[in-house]
Amino acid sequence: MAKDTYEQLEWRIAGMDCGACASKVRGAVERLPGVSSVEVTTMAERLRLDLDPEQGSADAIEKVVRGLGYSVTPRIGFDGHADAATSEPYCSSEMGGHTQGATTTGDLPWHSSKKGRLLLGTGALLAIAWATKLLASPNVGLWAFMLATLIGVAPVARRAFAMLRAGMPFTIEMLMTIAALGALFIGAAEEAALVVFLFAVGEMLEGLAANKARDGIRALTELVPKTALIEVNGALKEIAAGRLLKGQTVVVRPGSRVPADGEVIAGISGVDESPVTGESVPRLKEPGSEVFAGSINAESVLRVRVTRAAADNTISRIIRLVEEAESARAPTERFIDRFSRIYMPIIVGIALLVALVPPLVFGSNWEIWIYRALALLLIGCPCALVISVPAAIASALSAGARNGILLKGGAVIEAAARTTHVAFDKTGTLTRGRPEVTDVVGVEASEDQVLALAAAVERESSHPLAKAICAQAIDAGVDIPLGHEAYAVPGKGAAAKVQLVMIIVGSPRFAAETGVTTNLVTAQVTELESQGKTVVVVFSDQMLYGLIALRDEPREDAAVAIEQLKQMDIKPIMLTGDNARTGRAIAGQLSMDHCAELMPEDKVAALQELAQNKDVMMVGDGINDAPALATARVGVAMGSGTDVALETADAAILRNRVSDVVGTIRLSRATMRNIRQNVALALGLKGVFLVTSVLGVTGLWIAILADTGATVLVTLNALRLLAFTPAQGNADS
Q1: Rounded CA separation 730/466 (Å)
Q2: Is the confidence at residue 89, as pLDDT, over 50?
Q3: Partners of 229 in the β-ladder
């Protein structure tokens, strides 16, 4: 069947607490007929796949997942609102009986979850068995411990055999079942019951730790208010925020959260955007300003025209990006996943040798060596190793999102951590992106005419220079004629037909190519550029009307950020399409190398040359620098939630701070250190207890503590990244 006839289906899977859980679901589902492109993410609790409806069915997939012990619910969003873990609505005509959302372990008290009930049940059975032993006799107590073990291990065994039927014999559930039943077989009933209880404790702790990592995403979903006030025929009406449509006008009162992405059409107020971008200082919003869903109106009433539907607002896209990022697994994670697949069979083989060789070859005691082999089985489970990378990555993604740094997955984090060079665009990246007109020079026209013609050409452009020219024309009160047939000349300027003449607003070099410049004009351009100003020329193919000079100052934190990069042994370089003199002036202020007068293809060539033996990060505005962002090892877009910034580059910085580039690298390096610590911790504990179990120093209950304890320690270590703040890099310690 052709690939395009497949249906993409998606479910929410509750109860997954580690990478091993995701591997189990993935392994079971991808064996089903008609299933392809299986994607399972733990933190997002998502299963996504392509299904050929002629070969398989959604019901069969759900049955298999439930058989593994997980809850499964189709992910949907009828009103555009996400369910508790997602911002991406899903619906399918193939599946009936949809239920909005699903209950996860994180939504319930711990004692109401499946793992909580298992913990309480096994604990109660163990306590009853101990009481029976003390109050009755050891023989009666032995039967009580056996009964406690069998009852406690029954749900674990069911999951183990479900996974065995799905083609996965080597799971912690199977090893646990074998160890518990084997302990009963050799008469260690009391220890078997204790092991079952400790296993339940470990499972519960894993669940709590995983839900802690998910809290950051859950917190984002709570930022957007559930209701909004809209204006209808002059009256206010309260509706569900998820039902807001583009073009509607909402009223945001002081102290209320903005219910949707939009544009202010009336009112002036300070807005706290820290919930969205991490920016702590409220920003002044006035008519024409953009506001984000989830930000807080601090001062006075604002009227906002909705520009994005609920499912596509900035918060929803951030959540979606962070969830999608979990699928972009780091190379280290993929290696560990492959390693774990051969690791467990090897451990099982070693355990068999430990159980058989000493008694058969050396005549040793069967019970002793079977006991040690069972302990070895429990020690050998790779849960801690498997979760060591995804737990750290998930924590880093959440920490970054909370601080306005969006990273698209583990592969990006790993690449960013290796960065040796950072290439910056100038306008809107190193500079504020808000240039101001400083000089208007009339040549064949008056200053007002030069401004009017330039504004007519640039009226529809979103480029910072164009906006500055139009703003200056409006402030000067000049009449701006209409421009027609407007188009851009990449890397050179823009053009439009104004009063039947094709007017061009472009670089001095572009004007020189048409032959309309003179020596006097060239001298004037040189003088203005030597002052660090950007000069544009207003001309046609027959006449040069005049010059407009603009200056865009470096961002306040740019110099400090560049110095911090140097202290981290990272070399910064500025790549700009601006003229050499302006580029030199800005680069001189920031004490960094630069290359100027670069066309978009020149930036790509410069990055390709750098990338031959360097790990290069490119930082641009996400719109004009798309080719360069794609060429670099890591492309970082600076932009407050623009579509391109969020969806084109490998990473996006929402606060428009150069210092957050430093924070991105710090976070990535801290994450990789955390991963190395986790791997060392997991393998180190395994290695120590493998030896002590074979030597008989440690027994079954220590073995299960070592396994679940290592998993919990690795997860808790990864959760330290949630406290990371890019400015201090305090997760480095």
Answers
A1: 41
A2: no
A3: 238, 251
Q: How long is the chain?
A: 733
Catalytic residue among 261, 337, 425, 552: 425
Cα–Cα distance for residue pair 172/642, rounded to 1 Å:
45
More confident residue, 648 or 309: 309
327 DSSP assignment = T
Q: For residues 103 and 91, is the Cβ–Cβ distance under 8 A?
A: no
This prediction's pTM: 0.69
pLDDT at 706: 74
Q: Which domains are assigned to the chain?
A: 3-103 (3.30.70.100), 110-224+316-418+633-733 (no CATH), 227-312 (2.70.150.10), 436-551 (3.40.1110.10)
Instruction: Give Cα separations from 620 to 404, 600, 661 (angstroms).
Output: 16, 12, 11
The answer to whether residue 544 scores a pLDDT higher than 90 is: yes
Q: How far apart are CA 525 and CA 508, in angstroms?
A: 8
pLDDT at 605: 87
Q: What is the DSSP string of 98-162?
A: --SS---GGGS-GGGSHHHHHHHHHHHHHHHHHHHHHHS-HHHHHHHHHHHHHHHHHHHHHHHHH
| CB neighbours of residue 684 within 10 Å | 11
- Residues 6+ positions from 384 with CB-CB distance below 8 Å: 678, 681, 682, 685, 686, 707, 710, 711, 713, 714
CB proximity list for 462: less than 8 A, separation 6 or greater? 623
Mean pLDDT of the chain: 80
b/e burial code for range 214-227 (CB count within 10 A of at least 16 → b): bebbeebbebbbee
- Known catalytic residue: 732? no
Identify the band that residue 522 occupies on the pLDDT scale cut at 50, 70 and 90: very high
